[in-house]
Amino acid sequence: MPELPEMENYRIQLSKHILDLPITEVVINREKSINKDAETFSAELIGRQVIFVERRGKHLVFHLDNGRRLVLHLMLGGLMYLGSKTDRPDRTTQIEIGFGQEMVLYFIGLRLGHLHVHSAKEVEEIMSHLGPEPLDRKMNESRFIEIFRKRRGSLKTALLNQEVIAGIGNCYADEIAFTAELLPSAKLQQFSEEDLSRLYHSMREVMISATEAGGYMEMSFKVGDTLTGGSNDLCRVYDREGETCPRCGDVIVKGEMNGRKVFYSPGCQHDR
C-alpha cells in the first residue's frame, strides 16, 4: 500500500505537471471507484483546473478552481501514471483524467482504492480523525514522546494507527522498528524516554530517506521518471525474509501480527 513517501512523491510530481491545466476529458471504467454516477462525476471535473495538490497521510487532495476537492486513496495496489494516449501503460485503468490533448492521468489498481469528489467541508470531516504528520515541523521530539508515552500495546500497531500518526504503513513501520533496534512486537508501555527518543529519530531518518528516494512504487510515474521506486533498495528488513541482516548478520524473519506480515532481525532488534 502506498504510504507517505510514495504519496508525497506523487504530490510533488503532479504539482509540476498538471496545475492550472483545464480538465478536458474524464473516463470512468469502474464506477465503484468514484462516489457519484459517472455522468455527474465527469460533469464536476470537465472544464475545471487543479490549482493545488495536497497530501494528508496516505491521501492526496486535488484542490479544484471552484473550491471542490478530489480525494484519492490508492489503498492496496493502486498506482498513477501520467502520459499520453500513445504511451499509456499496458494495465487496466479504473479512471482516466485528460488535461488538454496530450496529457492523461491514469489511475490504476483502484479495486480497493477510490477517487471521490467532495466539498472542502466534507474533506475536513473526512480527514479529522487523522493524527499528526511524522515530518511536520510541529512534530518535534517532545511532542512525539508525549504522544507515544500515552500509548499501550505493540510498537507496530501504534505506528500503523492513522489516528496516532498519519502516513506510516506496513513497510515503513518495519523499517522504523529496525532502525530503532526495536522489535515490532515490543510493548510501548515498557519503553523509556531514551527508547522513545531513539524511535523518533529513527522515524525521521526512515521517512525522509524514503521520500527523497521516491518511495517504493513498482512503476515509474511518467516517461523519463528515474526517481519513483528508488527506495526499494533502501529497505533493510521489509520483504527481505531469509536474507542476511545488514547490521548483525542474523537471518531476517517474516512473521505475522494482527493479520499483517512483519519483518525483523531477531539478532539486533529487542523489546526495548
UniProtKB/TrEMBL annotation:
UniProt-listed PROSITE patterns: FPG_CAT, ZF_FPG_2
Domain of life: Bacteria
One Pfam family it belongs to: H2TH
Keywords from the named record: DNA damage, DNA repair, DNA-binding, Glycosidase, Hydrolase, Lyase, Metal-binding, Multifunctional enzyme, Zinc, Zinc-finger
Boundaries of every FPG-type domain copy: 236-270
Domain Formamidopyrimidine-DNA glycosylase catalytic: 2-100
EC identifiers of the protein: 3.2.2.23, 4.2.99.18
Keyword Disulfide bond: no
Similarity comment: family membership: Belongs to the FPG family.
Record organism: Paenibacillus segetis
Keyword presence, Transcription: no
Required co-factors: Zn(2+)
Record's protein name: Formamidopyrimidine-DNA glycosylase
InterPro entries the UniProt entry points to: FPG_cat, FPG_N, H2TH_FPG, Ribosomal_uS13-like_H2TH, Znf_DNA_glyclase/AP_lyase, Znf_FPG/IleRS
Catalytic activity line of the entry: Hydrolysis of DNA containing ring-opened 7-methylguanine residues, releasing 2,6-diamino-4-hydroxy-5-(N-methyl)formamidopyrimidine
